[in-house]
Amino acid sequence: MKPEQSRIGLALSGGGIRAAVFHLGVLQYLAESGLFDRIASISSVSGASLCVGAVFAASGSKWPSGVEFIRSVCPKVRELILKNDIQKAALLRLPVSPRYWGNKVGLVARMLEKKWGITGTLQSLPRFPYWEINCTTFETGKSFRFRRDYMGDYTVGYVQNPGLPVSHMIAASAGFPVLIGPYILKTKGMRWTRDKWGRQEEAPVSGKYTLWDGGVYDNLGLEALHKIGRGLDDEIDYLLVSNASAPIAYKKRKAGMSVGNMLRLLDIAASQVVALRSREIFASVISRGDGMYLRIGSSAGEIAEGFGIPPERAEPLVKSCLSKQDAVKVRDYATTLLSPSPANFELIFRHGYESAKCVRLFGEAARVATL
Known about the structure:
Number of strands: 12
Order of helices and strands: EHEHHHHEEEEHEEHEEEHEHHHH
Radius of gyration: 20 Å
Low-confidence stretches: none
Structural class: alpha/beta
Mean pLDDT: 91
Distance between the termini: 15 Å
Shape: globular
C-alpha cells in the first residue's frame, strides 16, 4: 500500500538530542510531501520522546496539521532546542536542589516543563494520533508504555486513562541507566487490570516499579507498532522506522570497574537488539512495500545503491544532498541532551529530511522499475 493512502505509524528511535533533531527533519519531509496528515500512531523512545513532546508543546498540546507544522510548529521547536539547553539547566540546578540528588529524572522533567513548556498530563493529549512513550520495566524486563488511554506492560498489568504528567513520562523514557537514572512509578491509588481496556480482573501489583530508558528494551520503539509473527498493529497500514541510534565503534576496556565499561555493555546489547529487529522489519514489512526504514549515517548515494538505482539516474538527487562525510558526522554526533550549535542543528535536521526524501523517492523508483 502506498503511504499517501495509508494510516502511517512512526517508530522513532532514541539517541538523545541527535535523534530529536533528526526525527524533526523527517517530520518536515513528511509535512512537505503531504504524508504528515496520514500519521495515525507514533511510538517514541528517549530522544524521540523529546521531539514529539516538543511538537505537542509548540502546538498547544494538540497534533498539528502538516501546514501548521511547516509554518509555525517546526520553527518553534527549533527555537526551543537551540535556546533552552535542558541538560545544562539541570546540571546547574542539581547542586542546589537536594531533593533531586536521588531523582535526576525528576529534575529532567522539571526542566522540560520550565524550559520547553511541556506541561499537562497524558489526558491533555489528543486521542489521535496515538502516541506511545516507551520505557523499560526493571522488575519484569518488559516494555512499559504510556499513552492517553492506558499505561503498563503485559506482565505487570495496565491502568486505564492515566493522569500522570507528560513531562515525567518523557523523562522516564530518556532515563538512561547510570547517566540519568530510573523513574519510580508508585502504584498506590491506581487500579491495575490484566488487559489494556479494564475488562478483565484486577492485577496484583507491587507498591512501585522502576522504569528505565525505553532504549534498554527496544531503542527503535518497534514493538508497539509491529509484533513479530503477527505483523503491523491494527491501527496502522504503513510503518516508517526512523533509526537515529548511535553506532558501536571500537573501544578499549578501562581497567577495573568503571561507568564507561557498564555503558559499553549496555550499548552492545542495545545494538544487537536493534540489528535483529531491523532485519525482521526488512523481511516482513519493507520487502512487501508496507514501510520505509531510515538509518542515520546513510548518504544519498548509499541509499540509491541499496535500491539498485543506476548512478546516472540517482545523480541529480544525490548531488543536492549531504556528502557521505557529512552523513557520518551526523551519525557520530554525541548522544547527549545538550543543545547543538545552530550549524550542527541544521546539519542533523537536513540529514533527517534528506534521508526520508531519498528512501521514499528511490524506493518508489525501484518499485516502478520492477513492474
